[in-house]
Automatic annotation (TrEMBL), chains A, B, C, D:
Chain ranges of the Gfo/Idh/MocA-like oxidoreductase N-terminal domain: 5-130
Protein name (record): Putative dehydrogenase
InterPro entries reported in the protein's UniProt record: Gfo/Idh/MocA-like_OxRdtase_N, Gfo/Idh/MocA_oxidrdct_glycsds, GFO_IDH_MocA-like_dom, NAD(P)-bd_dom_sf
Gene3D superfamilies in UniProt: Dihydrodipicolinate Reductase, domain 2, NAD(P)-binding Rossmann-like Domain
Domain of life: Bacteria
Keywords: Oxidoreductase
One Pfam family in the UniProt entry: GFO_IDH_MocA_C3
Species whose genome carries this gene: Microvirga lupini
PANTHER family in UniProt: BCDNA.GH03377
Keyword Translocase (UniProt): no
Taxonomic lineage: Bacteria, Pseudomonadati, Pseudomonadota, Alphaproteobacteria, Hyphomicrobiales
Length: 373, 373, 373, 373
């Protein structure tokens, strides 16, 4: 076990989340060397210094470029706003560093394609931060699918809903500007797509609909401005496996706080998952006497690795931040040349291409094939 | 209060359900005259005699035509297989009887249109049996919407799932034959559409997808036969109100027994309903302190009429059959010239036209406008 | 199948409920003769006449004694206030009628003992109205226990909560007077005890606590009056089987509407039931792989007789009033000399004796043995 | 902000949990100096060395006494088996260190009393590890109570259930030996009591019952041995506030993994909490229109401090280990002379005395007053 040198760019929420993960991974898992938190970058030296102290990094810089070239750094965590990902990730890869970049890859598909090219050229590991797939429950679901517990999945429904855009009188801000992207589709649709990716692989065809619940919003200082993005997106899908389905996204869904509701219908059973109760999954199988069949609520526990590395007793509950620690361990596994449960640029680009296809299908009112899926 | 004379055609489950309702309506509500259960028809005199005894009807016949012309009959309950509805309903209306016909109107749209024409020509009441809309919870939802409790509804999701077609090794039977209709779409999609009808009115545009989870099924005696109907149907929708949404139907959804899951997203709140827990509704509103907001589970009680006519205490629960008693009372209200909560042929035909549009859109892979919505 | 002649005394909610059951039992079950609704009594002839019309009874009387002696009557339904039960039930039994009396037997234990003596002397059937035990779910639970599905039950917890006494500013009325009984204990504790009776048999020892959430209540016209009954009662129990447990009753439990929450812990599994979701039961068993165990929510369906007689499809839900129809069928079964799922006076008296023991134990602050359990 | 020097004794699960908390507290909260992880003790130098590397401690020792006297240490985390707490805590306090000791204080009440005396004599902070009270939901509940949101609480029910002793054929081990304590009562009853402590203060009187679901258990090598502890404990309680209630504990409750179910009934509403869904709480209040009242499920979010320090978005979920980080922050607050949400020895001893009273009341079959509550 050699100790990895870590560079971190960005110290907002996701930066903190990466830092917590790098800090905790050795203690939680007990089977990796404690990483060296080498250097951290923020837009000013002052802020960087303060954050380095809080987050436990040895050095700090106001210039992110010094991170990617620092000889003490093996892996660069990139947690800046999405628009900065391409430049930073490509620079790091070209400097021979491994990259752990928050999702999505970029705000425009061509940039994401360039990132993939840089990763391929570098021969380095280029991983994406897709927390939700790291829930032990999601691995359990994959095991259940692999075991044929619910037979062949023929239909899937995925909903992702939050309410941070639900207030019609909230002030217009950048998330309502076209420059920020399509709206709910890329803002968090990628999470839904990441789950489909790890559970089922590619999406073949899509037929989307995007909607604006509110035509305009008040502007600071008075007046109203037309909303340019779509807070709601729904799409019919057809998977590579042949299964049909639907993905429904709504970031103006009052009362939903972090809901990702997934229903997987198979020939021998059904699996239901709700991210707002992330320590549970429901499983229905056609077993035993018909008068005692029902959806079973499975609580996570040590039987669902790597829950056991966090808590030895079942039913006590992991939290959202713990998922990042798991992702961090998977990244290290990958760096060690092992098989890891991780979305790398090769898979990430398929997610971005699917987003692009959905947006086009919605604008053109027709089914669109996903290319390079 | 004059006592109505009742004729019943068909004594399968829905016939029994109508009979129970006619038997109970006076006792439950206490404000209508006890109906006279005059005559009942089955395909043989012998079966008819037995059923008349069980269900409390005075006379019995093996010929349904004698029911529609019987002078003692004011209202004809039609509960035979769907293919018989048009002939029977039209005959009854032409004989000057009111009609209470189970959903859907017919197996083919032109027949339904003829039924509507007959109803208009007759000047009689022609009501359809759409039980689910009679749940006091659905009326509460309508009140909540009318009160603006969740503001303007901008997005709706409706799922209807059962598992009676979920077993891939169940023998091929008539529900898999093309002659039975499209599949999940008309087999129970009409229920979902009935809820949309009473809550929101018309559907403007649809874009559907229909799928076969199993390509073929075993045939009695050996071999397999290709399935001709679609056990799964999903459709993007746009309502007349401008709201977007999706309807997802699956009659091969293992574990789902009578699920109708409805999510109504508004500018000030959200309503969630699950038919499998038909005595509950969930309501989220943006009121009060932000640290104590949440989905509220409202249990039905005497505050939700006409629950109070069944049970004086809250939380004790109505059953599915009780909904028919409520529908019966609404029909009597309508016959008395009052405003009733009921789907008559005028509304029923809009549901059938929407089904037709969804099927076409699915076959053609494009959005279709619903005509005469 | 001979047709039973029915007499009904009392037409409040439970009288209506009995009438609905007598009206529906033949149609629902299809295997019993349609009862003759012979005569009904109310305290005035006028009210009796009106109710007879509503409820479908042939005759009406203002004198209940004419019901118990009427030659056309085989069974007398007694649904008057509890204080009247002894006199009426004894008169009916002495007149050679079968009795179907609402729970509890009486307001004082000696009266209940006299009722039991009269029943024994008469040789007639004397049944009590304990609706909750008629839920198909409760029968399923008994089957599960008999099958050893959860092994030997070693601990039980039963809660029964409603909120009709929860408002501290509600006016003082008879339920707060000592003459009405102990309070929550006998007001609805008997329901909890009826479930224990049919599932486990006798209660050996009890140690109760009774509490008054509100010392006094406002009196109509002004001032306040001290509350004399206990809206809360909790008792430790030890069953004849040796299992330990607790029964907790609260009729001032805000938000609880008809909750009866039952947890049965066994050596191989656990059963959980909540009356507010009366069409569901939860079952945990130690089967299969440990990573996929969990509480299974079983929805009622045709596999749970006699649900099938009401509705042929699963998951559609029975209501509270349907339980009375089931009880009615069980009573007829008993009258036909068959084994029935019913609480008769012999069992009812054990429930009353347990109530008495709990009250004494609470007053004396010690464990009390239940006699004649 | 001065940096605290930390010593840790014991590196089992709770030791790891303390280490993770000391590692994360500065990064999570951003308002405390990063603690110096000075020295860690295990029973061998070799294990200690390995753990120091994993957990990020600078030095390691095989002798815990060197930790309590180390000048670089300000606070000693004690996470060894309960029997060792008194000696270690007293030594640390006498050496002038602050102590953070896992619950319970000791295995015998006199030892706990000695610990309290040592804490008082030292003038140092002596805190106990009672994780569950640190859930932001518990703080929210306290705010709700303080705000009078549910009026005056007049009845409480608390259940704590797990299934680690549920298998009757699991081998006899130390938890079934009398030397380990009473059983469920002290093994985890203290958690239930800690919640009552922070929400309501003292317990006045108790009347307990303890039960053995299984009389004996198999012994390794053959034969069976009589179980000496009580896996089930139930107690009636009366709080200092006058509220009545019950606490039910079961460590052989199949299917329950980490359930702490709490029902608080007040004069204006009810609060319900289930630790297995630790990011939710249910609140019923008597507000607004009666037809739309219900239990509201509140999901934790940034409105519930200090959730916001972990995650800026609501509904994403904290985990069990996060509670230790919060406890750590509270301890630092206390060390800084601020008011903290923490159970110190003064309160901890009241919990131990209550446990003792319950055990005595169960053995003597009578109500017992809690002394020094």
């Amino acid at each position: 076990m050699t100790s990895l040198g870590i560079g971190l760019i960005g110290t907002g929420y996701m930066g903190k989340c990466h830092a917590l993960a790098w800090n905790a991974v050795a203690a939680v898992f007990g089977d990796v060397a404690r990483p060296r938190l080498a250097v951290l970058a923020e837009h000013s030296q002052e802020l960087a210094d303060r954050k380095a102290q809080e987050l436990g990094f040895a050095r700090a810089t106001g210039d992110w470029r010094t991170v990617v070239t620092d000889p003490a750094v093996d892996v660069v965590s990139i947690t800046t706003p999405n628009a900065f990902h391409p430049e930073m990730a490509i620079a790091a890869l070209e400097a021979g560093k491994h990259v752990w970049c928050e999702k999505p890859m970029a705000t425009r598909l061509p940039d994401a394609e360039r990132m993939l090219a840089a990763a391929c050229a570098s021969g380095k590991v280029a991983a994406l931060g897709y927390n939700y797939i790291q829930n032990p429950i999601i691995r359990l679901i994959r095991h259940l699918l692999d075991d044929g517990e619910i037979g062949e999945v023929n239909h899937v429904r995925l909903e992702m809903d939050e309410d941070f855009m639900a207030d019609p009188e909230a002030l217009f801000y950048w998330k309502s500007e076209a420059s920020s992207g399509h709206g709910a589709l890329d803002d968090f649709g990628v999470h839904a797509l990441s789950l489909i990716r790890v559970l089922f692989g590619g999406v073949r065809r899509v037929c989307g609909q995007m909607a604006k619940p509110y035509a305009d919003r008040p502007v600071q200082g008075g007046g109203r401005r037309a909303v340019e993005t779509y807070d709601i997106a729904t799409t019919l899908i057809e998977l590579e496996t042949g299964a049909s389905g639907v993905i429904a996204l709504n970031r103006s869904a009052w009362g939903r706080k972090g809901r990702i509701f997934m229903q997987l219908f198979g020939s021998k059973g059904t699996i239901v998952y709700d991210q707002e109760r992330m320590n549970e999954v429901q499983l229905y199988t056609v077993d035993g006497l018909t008068d005692r069949q029902g959806f079973r609520t499975i609580l996570t526990g040590p039987q669902h690795p790597p829950y056991d590395r966090f808590i030895p007793a079942p039913g006590h509950g992991l939290g959202f931040n713990d998922l990042k620690v798991i992702e961090c361990r998977e990244l290290i596994r990958r760096l060690d040349g092992e098989r890891a449960h991780l979305i790398e640029f090769e898979d990430g680009i398929c997610i971005e291409r699917t987003v692009d296809a959905i947006a086009r299908s919605a604008h053109e009112g027709r089914w669109v094939e996903v290319e390079g899926r």
